[in-house]
Every structure is written in C-alpha cells, then in structure tokens.
Amino acid sequence: NAGVMQNPRHLVRRRGQEARLRCSPMKGHSHVYWYRQLPEEGLKFMVYLQKENIIDESGMPKERFSAEFPKEGPSILRIQQVVRGDSAAYFCASSLGQAQETQYFGPGTRLLVL
Amino acid sequence: GENVEQHPSTLSVQEGDSAVIKCTYSDSASNYFPWYKQELGKGPQLIIDIRSNVGEKKDQRIAVTLNKTAKHFSLHITETQPEDSAVYFCAAQEGNNRLAFGKGNQVVVIP
Fold first, then answer.
1. Residue A75 and which of B14, B65, B81, B101 are 20 to 30 A apart at CA?
2. Does B25 touch chain A (CB under 8 A)?
C-alpha cells in the first residue's frame, strides 16, 4: 500500500544545470499534480497530468519548465537552466481523477540552486 | 482564479484546549475543501475534507464546518495534544481539479 513516491528527496544544482524530479503516483491513480512551495508559503499549483496528456499547465512558467507523465514510468518535472529562484520544495500529488477526489501528496523534492 | 485566505497565521494553545483555524475563499463555484497537516520536512497529509453538499464533518478530535453563503470554512481540533503541533493548510478546489491553498497556519501546542 505504497503512497506517492518522489525522488530524489534532496537535489542540489548549480545555476544553469538541469533538474529532473520524479513522481510515482499511488497504485491505481492515473492523475498527477505538481505543486511548488516556497519557504513559509502555501503550495502553488503548477501542472496537472494524466497518462500521456497534460490537462492543465496554467501554473507552470512558460520557459525552462516542462512536465510529462508517460504511459510507462513515473511523472517527470524538468527544470532547465536552473536559477536561484527555482529553489523550493516541489510536491507531487495523485488522485483517481474525478472531481472532488482526494489528492494524496508525496514527501517532496527539495531543490537547492547554488 | 480562486483566492484562499487563512487566519490566524500562528496559533498557540495549551494542551487540552481547542484550536480553530478559519479560511475564506473567493470562487463560489468551488465545491471541495480539504485540510492538510504538514510537519517539518514532510509532505502535506490530508486530515479531513468536506464537500459542498454538507455543512459539517467530524472525525474523532477533528471537525470541519463549511458556510457556502459566506464562503468560509473552519478546522476545529479539540483536546489538542503536542503531536498536533504542525502547519495546517486549507485548500479549495478550482477547475481542472486544481487546489488553491492558503498560506498555512502554524499551530503550537504547549504542554
């Protein structure tokens, strides 16, 4: 009965490098959401994906950020050419997908950009 | 989009007393309101949620009330214990299942 899994838990990158964050949803869940949390702030929605489809990316910056959820394997949030302002905790959540369905969160990836 | 505000930002209570956190939201179309507890270094954990077809829901020491007319909902924790110390987030569901979160409330239970 594994929950949402994220890796790595901590990631350090230098400015200009790429960061790849992975998320495996709960068993049976086909809907994945990514949120970003800045220090002492609430979570901000970034992107909502189903298998092989991006449903809503309205919260994701247009440049340098991309997300995917392939037919096989985990969902990936990719940040190219990272800057210090990208330092944050990135959380993934999953749900069965229907409206008003509970979203279960993973432990997060804490990204630090030096 | 949805705007969720959460008050107070910090709350200290004596062990055994009750804690109440209030949230307001702006979008009358929102119909689902979860509460999450986040401990230091961990992900948010759902503690209770409420849908708009009910006004109150209770689970042991935790309860949530919803007033759709006034667009506010509250979390009630009774008989607080030290392990209740954490940051609590309220959220409202927008379109496309997005959750809009409040900024969080730091609850400190004093033994």
1. B101
2. no
